[in-house]
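Lab notebook, bench 4. We co-purified these components, and the gel suggests they stay together. Before we commit to crystallization screens, I want a quick structural picture of the whole thing.
Request: model the full complex, all chains together.
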Amino acid sequence: MGKVKFATVWLAGCAGCHMSFLDMDEWLIELAQHVDVVYSPVGSDLKHYPDGVDVCLVEGAIANVDNLELIQEVRQKTKILISFGDCAVTANVPGMRNMLGGAESVLTRGYLELADAGKQFPNEPGIVPELLDQVQSVHNVVPVDIFMPGCPPPADRIKATLAPLLKGEMPVMEGREMIKFG
Amino acid sequence: MSVVTLKIDGVDVAIAAGSSVMQAAQEASVEIPRLCYLEGLSTVGSCRLCVVEIAGINKLLPACTTEVREGMDVTTQSPKLQDYRRMVLELLFGEGNHVCAICVANGNCELQDMAIAVGMDHSRFPYRFPDRKADLSHTQFGIDHNRCILCTRCVRVCDEIEGAHVWDVSQRGEFCHITSGLDQPWGDVDACTACGKCVDACPTGAIFRKNDTTGEKVGDREKLEFLVKARENREWVR
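Here is the predicted assembly.
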């Protein structure tokens, strides 16, 4: 069996899930023997999401047009898409802006009402991505194969999710160790 | 006192007539998921997590408000029940704003525990993200309506155990919320004795001690059990 084509992507999240991924410490060496890291903010320098990815960890919610574009590409090109952490699974902290209403009222709150100086909306088309009206969990936008909650998911949970996949088996996402939110 | 015999998951149980299926299950050491039920308080059957199947009855009934009957055959665990319970949990998560990561009760929350128990790794229903308020007017405690699941345990513990009746339920549907006094800020309610029973009764982080931050709310459920025992049996021991 060839190596598993493995990717991780970072959408609207704090990178904490990726830090927790790095917390797997020496098991990362073991992982590296079984996978080709084809796209990842912490494991690869490639700028384009390739075709034929076997497993992808998706950290973060869908908050702006860049997130939306990337997740659709990821879904198209990935066999097993894992919602990685609470932001991906529930929208979590990034989703708290939904309580304020749409993008317009969020920007008004952040850039006008709370600004000390230079009150203006950020506007740099093509560079600063437009906010979506509502922050969404990943599975509200594209189908998801495995849900791994946690803020962040502890390193042991990430390992227990990935290890069976390397053997061609699906992980069992049950019990406090595997699915506790927060 | 007449005794009723029934079966809970195939186990024979004998219990006083007038008891609930929940109490019979406890007698048989069978755990039924629950949120609005709290031993020592009256029952309301509002959360629907404790629904069980009873042979010969075509619908699911809440164990906490269903009285035992002679010869009853109760099933507390089945794929169908698990399915309904998980749906209840998903709807509860979607109804309010339950962000475990920043909650005082993270790691010590019955809503979180129940989600794990029913295998909820995500919600199939989109979240509503309602606009809800928090009241921090009390000197010692706060209530954050974002985290409230309307179980009314605070209402009942304050009325039935403390005898102060600070809490009540206002409005209906999506606007339904817990209210203090005559719809006043909690800090303005003279009837509140600041006993903290509502904090201990609250299954989530909705009612909390003000100096607690993320993950610091530690429930003292035994205190409530102690109070119930003290009142009912005159036993003042913990």
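Strands of chain B lie at 3-8, 11-16, 51-54, 61-62, 73-75, 134-135, 141-144, 167-170, 177-180, 207-209. Worth comparing against the SEC data before the next meeting. The longest helix of chain B spans residues 79-95.
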